[in-house]
C-alpha cells in the first residue's frame, strides 16, 4: 500500500496547491486607478477572482463608498456615468453569474472589513427567473458556515424534510462545482500568471472600469424571445433569511438599503404581468412583507415604459435603461454623499 | 457516465470503491457492482440499461437449461435475440437507408421505427460478450456455471461495459467466483493507479489535444490542403490510438482496483511489422473474438482469402453501421491478403521499413473513420493535388505536438510504468509522484475532454 499512499499524498498536496494558486489575483488593485474611465482586461479572470478583487479594493480604499451596487450580470454593466449620482462615490460590487445570495455574502464580507457602503442598491433577479444559486466566490469554510446558517433558518421556519434535503443537495452541488472550477485551465493559467506578476493584454472582449462596472461586446437582440416559465426554486424562508442578512448592514453603517426586482424586457414583462406564476407572486409578497418588517426599501416590478432597444436578452436590461432607474432609487438618499 | 469526468473520478468511483471494500458488505459485492454498473450505464439513458438487462436475463435463462450443452437449438435461442437486438439498434437504420430514399418524407415515416432509434452505448461489446459466453458454455469450455449475480457482474461490470476489453468468461471467472473474499493488495492498488493515470493522460493530454487541432479539418474536409492532409492522416492515427488505448488502460486499472485482471487490448500496434501483425496487436480482444467465433468456424486458413475478406468486412461493420466502415474492413482485408501474397518480398525488407510501411497503410485507412464518402473524396482529391484546399496549413505548434505524440507512441513503453511494480526505493517514490503529477495535470484539462471515440461502436 506504500505506493498508493505516496500517490494519494502527492495528489492531495497538488490539489491543495492548485486550490491555493486558483485564488491568486493580480498583486495590484486594478480598480484603484485614479481615473474612472481607466480599464483593465478581464480575459481569463473568473468571476470569483473579480469578487475577491472588488473586496480587496474596498479594503484598500480608505473611505467607504457612498453608493454600492450589488447583484449579478444584470447590473454589472451599470457605471456611475449611467445615472445622476450628484458627486456620490459609486462602486459596482456586482459579480456575474451569482444570485441575491452572493450579494448577501458580499455585504457580510464588507461588514467584516468595516467598508459597507452608505447606500446599498441591490439588483434581485426577477422572481419569474427563480435564480438562487449559492455563491462561488466564498471559501469552502464560508460555504459551510452559510450552509449551517441556512439549516438553522430552515428549522426556525419549520421547513419540511424535502426542503432541507434540497438545501443540503445544493450545498454539496456548489462545493462540487467550486472544486471542479479550481481546475479550469484558463483560470488556472491566469492565476499562475498573476502570481508571477504577468498579466497579458487579453483580446479586449471584456474589460472592467475603475468603478467596478464591466464593459463587454454583447450581441444586441431588440426582440428577444419571451422567457419560458420556470418551476419554483426559492423557498420563502430562504429569501426571508437572506433579506435579514442584508438588512444587518443597517446596523453596520449602511444608512439605506434598496433592493429592486430586476426588470425584464417589456414583452416578457407584459407576458408575466398577465400570467404571473403562483411561486413568483408568493415570493414577491414575502419580499415586500419582509422588507417592510426589516425597514429596508424593496421595489417590485419594472418601471413603466422601459425602452425595448439595446437588450442583449430578455433578462439583461441595457445599462443606459437601467442606469436612470437606479438613479431614481438613489435620489432620496443622496444626502448621505460626502462632498 | 464516462471515465474522463469529475463526477466519475471524485464521486462515483470513490463511493463504489468504498462500498465494495466496506467490511460489512462483502456478501453484497456482486450486487454493489451490478447496481453501480447499471447507474453508470443508465446515465446514458435508462432505456439502454433495459436492453442490457434483457440480454443478461435472456442468455442466462437459456444457458442454464440442463440440456443446453447438447442442444444446438438452445444455443441459437441464446445468441440470436441479443444478435437481433444488436442488428435492430445498430444496423436496421443503415440497411433501410441503403435501400430506400429517405429524402421522401413518406418513406422516412414508414421506416421511422428503424430510423429514430438511439444506439445503446457499447451494445457491440456486451452483445459479443454474452454470445461468447453462450458458445463457450455450449462447447463445454465453461464447466462451472456462475450464479446469476456473478454472470450479471461479468457482463455489466462498468469498467469494460461500454468499450471493452471484450472479456471471455475464463478471463475473469476466478475473480468472479471469489468476489466476496477479494482483498485489495498493494500490487493491485498500485497497478490500478498506474493504469488509470496513464490511461487518462493518454486520452486527455494526447488524444484530446490532437482532436482539438484536428477539429477544423474534421468538420470541413474542404479545408484540407496537401500539407495538411499529411498532418490529418498521422494526427488522427495517433488520436484514435491514444483515445482507445487510454480507455482500455483505464478499464484495466479499474478492474485491478476491484481485484480483476483484464486482458490487454493493445500490444504496441504501430510497431507492427505487417498488416497481419497489426491485427494481433490492435484491439486484441476483438481480433481474438473474431478469430475464435467467426474465422475458425468459417474454416480458418482452409479458405484464407475468402475468410479474411468475410471477417474483415464483419470487423468493419462491427465498428459502425455505414459503408465507409465496410470499405475500411475490406481495405484491411486487402492489406492482410496482399501481405500474405507478397510475404516473401515483404519479410525480406528491413524491419524499420516494414514497421513504417505498415504504420502508413494503417494510418491512411483511418480516414474512412474520420469522414463519410463525400468527405473522403474531398480529402483524397485535395491530398493528391487534384483540387486545392481552402484552409491554412497546420501551425508549427500542431506539428510539434504531432512529433511529440509520435515520439511518445514509439518511444515509451507505458505498460512498464502502468504496472507500477517497483515496491521500494527511490524508483517507487519517483514513479508514484510522477503518476500523481500526471493525474493532476489531466484534471486541469478535463473540462475540454471529449467522449471516447469507441463509445459509438
Strands of chain A, total number: 8
What's the number of helices of chain A?
A: 11
The poorly predicted ranges of chain A are none
Strand percent estimate of chain A: 5-15%
Supply the CATH superfamily name of chain A: SGNH hydrolase
Question: Helical amount among residues of chain B, as a percent range?
Answer: over 70%
Encode the helix/strand succession of chain B as letters: HHHHHHHHHHHHHHHHHHHHHHH
Elements of chain A, N to C (H/E): HEHEHEHEHHHEEHEHHEH
Provide a descriptive summary of the structure in words.
The complex is a heterodimer of chains A (339) and B (457). Chain A is 44% helix and 9% strand. Chain A has a single domain (37-139, 199-336), classed as SGNH hydrolase (Rossmann fold). The N and C termini of chain A lie far apart (69 Å). Chain A has eleven helices and eight strands. Chain A has 339 residues and is an alpha/beta fold. A five-stranded parallel sheet of chain A has the order 3-2-4-7-8. In chain A, strands 1-5-6 form a three-stranded antiparallel sheet, with no helix packed on it. Chain A is globular and about 70 Å long. Chain A has helices at residues 2-21, 47-60, 73-76, 100-112, 140-156, 161-181, 185-195, 236-247, 266-274, 278-294, 319-330; strands at residues 39-41, 67-70, 90-92, 119-124, 206-209, 214-216, 256-261, 297-299. Helices cover 70% and strands 0% of the residues of chain B. In chain B, helix 3 (46-63) runs parallel beside helix 7, helix 8 packs across helix 10 and helix 11 (186-219) packs parallel to helix 23 (425-444). The mean pLDDT of chain B is 90. The chains are: A alpha/beta (339), B mainly alpha (457). The interface between A and B is medium-sized, with 19 and 27 residues.
